Every structure is written in structure tokens, then in C-alpha cells.
Amino acid sequence: MAAVVASDLVTPLKRPFPNDGLGDENNNNNNGGATPDEKQAPRAVARRRDADPAAALAAARHEFGEHGGVNMSIEASATFTMAALEGTEAAYCTASGMSAISAVLMQLVGAGGHVVASRCLYGGTHALLSRFLPRVSGVTATFVDADDEAAVRAAVRPGVTRVVYVETVSNPTLAVADVPMLARVAHEAGAKLVVDNTFTPVVVSPARLGADVVVHSVSKFVSGGADIIAGAICGPASLVNAMMDLQDGALMLLGPTMNAKVAFELSERLPHLPLRMQEHSRRALAFATRMQGLGLRVAYPGLPDHPHHARLGAMGNPGYGFGGMLCVDMGTEDRANRLMHHLQNTTQFGLMAVSLGYYETLMSCSGSSTSSEMPPEDRARAGISPGLVRMSVGYNGTLEQRWAQFERALALMQPPQHHPKAAADRDADTAGNNHRKH
Ligand SMILES: Cc1ncc(COP(=O)(O)O)c(C=O)c1O
Q: Where along the chain is composition biased (Basic and acidic residues) (predicted)?
């Protein structure tokens, strides 16, 4: 990540070219390169310079960059900031989450190698492992229920399996990986555990739990603005250095490096990431609890009946909750779409969009969007039902205002006898109390 050195913006002009024709270079009166005319009335000259913004800008210091570049330095300090985020020795910022993931996998696995991966992964990662890497490099992947230790052990082939790959909290089903168990299994077979921590930055630190490499789609919570595409690889210095090798490194040779200006922008957002995650988590828990109270089928790791509630509680960093993602299963894609339609267009609860980690609540029907790369049978096996609505819970507006908007939208899904006022706007589905548990 980068940061413009603050002093560059405030310290006075040091002219880089002493003999640039601007004045008497032997002049010691602290006038910089004042002309003879300027020497006679230095204060007036200063006023004149200040009056014209163009002149003031041109008079501001122009200093060479640290390594002699014509522009001032953008300090490559993100390496430290991002590594600090995950508690790893080093980190490298990339142009997208997918570039981070593909670079790590290509570096660690190599031609003909094998990956054991969770059955439930972001659609792009699933496609990378199931289609692209097999086609271009002969890498093969076995997809397993990552919660089933025996299945993971059976799939891992010592000496051939190079990577065990999971998401801390899976997209979109919100299953929580047992990182310490997976690290043990991977290490016993001589493989590395790579964990995608996109859904739970700050909330969980997988490297502290045994993961060898942590990858991020920085485009999501870390950015927080839904306006930047970025990624990160956090891991040991030996890996990051190897990946930067001039002859042999995936980062050097595939060119996924983050734009320095993007890095600078992100460096401004990292300081409030922990605060943002706390509020995402607080709102998501409140909504999940209330939605469940209405009888909706909700998946949220913060709910006591979530199968991995205790696991995330034990793995998580205290004080950051259970993350900002929740899922509501509406049964069918049609009902999911109608609920989202009302939430966006009738009550302004949130926006239909496939991203996450934004201050507005974002909603998508995963089966037909972010997981659409997966064949239907793989989606079914991963537990992605056609009516699953994934929500990234935002934090703007008040909690009660947002909850009232959610309830109003839900009421529009009801049959008329329950909500007569909503009849004009209700959907055509008369199958009964469809938002109830089913
Ligand atoms: C869990 C996860 N990992 C990786 C990615 C890919 O990230 P990017 O869009 O920054 O390439 C996504 C994108 O949605 C994601 O949800």
C-alpha cells in the first residue's frame, strides 16, 4: 500500500535545478531564486505569488522521489499495513481479489499439482480451480465438504496436494472453516493452507490460527466504498519474495500489482476498517435475530443455532462480532427476486448488487449471480438454494429505520388477509405464508 509522505505536501520549495535561470544562485537572502526586481520588494513578490494559484502551485516544492523519480515518492508501506492486518510477516497488494488468488495458486501449486478445496467457494474461485487451472496447467482440484475432516484427509494426497483452499466464512452459505483443523491436515500432508478472508477482515485472523497464506478481495469490506477493485496476499516473507522473483515469480511475471494511487486511497480507509466491521457485525446480528424471530430461514454465524456459531466465536478476535454477511432463504428464485425488488424499489432498505462490504446494504440472489459459474448440481451440493438472498448489511441510516423498511417490504410479500393495505402492491404468489420457516 502506498502513502504520500505528508511532509512533501507542506514543506517549502527546494528547487531541484539550481541553475534554472530563475535568479541569482549566490543570493543568500533566503529569497529562493528571486529576480533582481523581486529582491527589492520580497514581501510584495510573496503576495503576488500567493495571489495566483497557478504560481503558488508552481512555487510549491518539487522534490525528486526517493529513488530519483521525477514525481515525489509514494511510499510502499502497504506491505506493512496489510501484513499487520493479518499478522503475517509480509503482504502484497494486487489489482483484484482474483489476481491475488490466481497468483498464489499458480505459485504454490505448479503444473500437474493438486488442490483440495472447499465445495463452497466464491464462483470465480470455483471456476478457476475447476476449469481454468486444469485447462492451462493440468492442476486438478478435489472439492470436499471442508467441515468433514475425514473427507479432507481422504482427498489430500501427500506429495501431490500442494494446497488446501477454503474461505474463512464461505460465499454465500456462510459456513465457517475450522482453520486449525484444516491447517493440521494440510501440514501433515506437506501442503499449505490458503484461506480467503474476504468476508471477515479483522473479525478473524486465519494466519494466527495456522493458515499459511491469507488472501483478500480488498474490493469488499477493506475498501468499504464499492468503488475499488483490489486484492491482497498476506503470508511469509519467503513466499512474497519468491512471488516477486524476476525470473520465476507470479507477481513479477503475471503483472497483477496494485496501482500505487489505488494503494494510497486504500491506506486512507484501513484505519477505520475495525470500526466499520464492528458496526456491520452489530447490525447483521440485530437483523438476523429479528428476521429469525419472524420465522424467516436465516443463516448467520452469530445466531446461536448456526452450526458454526461456537467455532466462529472461538476463532474470532474479541469485540468484532460475527461479520456483516447474512443469508435469507426465500425458497424460490422468484420470491427472492420479489423480496429484493420491494427492499430496493419500494422501501429503500438496500440495493440489489453483487458486491459486499459497503455502507449501504447490498443484496443478491447468489445462485443466479455470484455463484452462477457453478453447475447447478455443484450449487446444490454446496447448499446454495435457488432462493438464497445474500445480504451484506450496511450501517448507514438508523437500525430501527432500516428494520422498519425491511418489515414493510416483507409485508408486501404476504397474502391479502394478513396485510390488506398491501394488497395493491402484493405479489401474485398466493401459496400461503411463504416467508415462514419451510
Ligand atoms: C470471497 C471472495 N473472494 C474473492 C473474490 C474476487 O474478488 P475480486 O472481485 O476483487 O476479484 C470475491 C468477489 O466477490 C469474493 O466474494
A: 36-52
CA of 335 to the centre of ligand 1 (A): 26
Centre a 10 Å sphere on the Cβ of residue 101 and count the other Cβ atoms it contains.
26
Question: Residue 137 above 70 pLDDT?
Answer: yes
Whether 238 and 297 share a structural domain? no
The single-letter DSSP state of residue 132 is I
Tell me which residue range forms the domain holding 363.
Answer: 273-425
One domain for residues 90 and 218 = yes
Domain count, the chain: 3
Does residue 267 carry a pLDDT above 50?
yes
C-beta 229 within 6 A of ligand 1:
yes
* Residue 116 confidence (pLDDT): 98
Q: List strand residue ranges (DSSP E) for 330-433, in order.
A: 351-352, 362-365, 388-392
Ligand 1 centre from 272 Cα, in Å? 21
- Write the pLDDT tens digit of every residue in 197-228: 999 999 999 999 999 999 999 999 999 999 99
Closest atom of ligand 1 to CA, residue 354: 14
- Read off the pTM: 0.81
Helix residue spans in 87-236 (DSSP H): 97-109, 123-127, 133-137, 149-155, 179-188
